[in-house]
Amino acid sequence: MRGLWLLLVPIAGCASGGDIATNDPGTFGGSGGEQADAGGGSGGAQTGGSGGSGTAWGGSAGTGASSSGGSQSSGGTGGGSAGMSTGGTPSGGMGGTGGNCECQPGVQETEDCGNCGTRSRSCGNDCLWDTWSGCGNEGPCAPGTTQPGACDSCSEQVCQNDCSWGGCELKVGNECDWNMGHHWRCCGVDSWQFCLSSCKWSTACETNLTNADCCSGPGPSC
Predict the structure, then answer these.
(1) CB 80 within 8 A of CB 39
(2) Are 95 and 55 in contact (CB under 8 A)?
(3) Contact present, 95 and 58 (Cβ < 8 Å)
(4) Is the Cβ–Cβ distance between 177 and 198 less than 8 Å?
(5) DSSP letter at 136?
(6) Is this prediction's pTM over 0.85?
(7) Best CA proximity match to 178, nearest among 199, 162, 148, 204
(8) Are 75 and 100 in contact (CB under 8 A)?
(9) Cβ atoms < 10 Å from Cβ of 48
């Protein structure tokens, strides 16, 4: 028995002084793995870019959003699923139509004005008409208007369709030019009529008994 106790003492001393078989945790165990990131990659934008603003003649398309989604991140062990959201639409809509546009820039138009004249205007870069120019190439009168001119009191000048004055012509309803009583015409053999100041022919035919050829001569004074 005494020899058995001597054998057990070195064994107990080895257990308390060395590093063999100890109760300290983790001396030979590996460290635990890190938890993987659970979240995947973020998705792309859900909506596309807005359309471009329209000009007067229609705008171009707006700048679009990226068509691809976010990058797919691989999940770690035990992590979340990768991001799968799709991106927005590739491009914005077409620009809207313009506002109040009266004409196409650079276009010019003309119209009649005044006394057979013309005027013009141009369309500006803002798609609006400029003011009319002055009336040019006019005639001296408006068609149908009248003036005494150098005519007899029974006549007048009438403006023609080309806005120019015509010759003297009897006023409406008149029969002859008075010509201060010197206007006459033959009304039979050796007879004549005078134009009265009323611009009418006298009703009676005057007769010259002394000169049968008077109407072929210088007139009633023969």
Answers:
(1) yes
(2) yes
(3) yes
(4) no
(5) B
(6) no
(7) 199
(8) no
(9) 19
Q: What is the DSSP letter of 54?
A: P
How far apart are alpha carbons 92 and 69 in whole angstroms?
A: 17
Are 97 and 55 spatial neighbours (Cβ–Cβ below 8 Å)? Answer: no
What CA–CA distances, in Å, run from 128 to 53, 57, 59, 121? 20, 13, 18, 11
- Residue 136: phi and psi, rounded to 5, are -120, 165
Which single residue is written with the structure tokens 């770690």? 76
State residue 122 phi and psi, 5-degree precision: -120, 155
DSSP 6: H
d(CA 118, CA 112): 4
Distance between CA atoms of residues 103 and 124, nearest Å? 8
pLDDT tens-place string over residues 154-195: 999 999 999 999 999 999 999 999 999 889 888 877 788 899
Dig out the tokens for 83 from the structure: 């991001």
Cβ neighbours of residue 217 closer than 8 Å, sequence gap 6 or more:
211
